[in-house]
Amino acid sequence: MNLIVLDTETSDLDPDKGAKLLEIAWIEVAHTGEQWEQVGFYETYIEHPPTLVINPHAQACNHITLDKLTKENGAKNRYETIQHLLKFLKADSIMVAHNAPFDAAFLPEIKYPWICTKRSAQHIWPGMTGYSNQVLRYALGLKVDTPADRYPHQALYDVTVTTAILLKMLEQTTPLQLLNLTQLPVRMKTLNFGKHRGQNIRDIPRDYLIWLRKQSNLEPDLIYTLDYILHQQP
Fold first, then answer.
1. Cα-atom radius of gyration of the chain, to the nearest Å?
2. What global pTM score does this model have?
């Protein structure tokens, strides 16, 4: 078994609405007999025509400009990149990403299971002040050998941090356990919308929680949290 830890940078948030893959990087992690270790990596920009529109909000994070997405500057076409990624994958490989549903949505050709390090971290280390890969990096005191010429929100930099988080998890869990944690609902601590936004859900009036639970289109984590609290409260 090997684990492919991956990060993408994109032109916008939703591939179903035309968002494109701009940059990708991955690190291969394998068990060397004694421990899990990095054994290989790859990164590239994805080639696009100069007519591509990049959402300024996305660009403010990743700082990817159109000149970086040309063949002349080393960008690879999407098909070639996916084919190269497939060469890293084995029959029992597992993909890994921080907020895996986002990255997986831009790679529909990759028919492998995904570990989400963000969701897994919420189970393994409850009570953190945040669960971004950079917050976890410092909260866990990880020593991360990030590339000297890369910066946060560049794919190789971010995937290096995510790999360090994964390796920390693998000190106490297995990849299959992380796959299971990825599928389990997470108990939320605070509400992230509405008039009680930012409040501890346990401190919100019960009649409001009962009303909220009856609403449609609630996220699975919120449903799980409300059911747990309403069952616990008298």
1. 20
2. 0.92
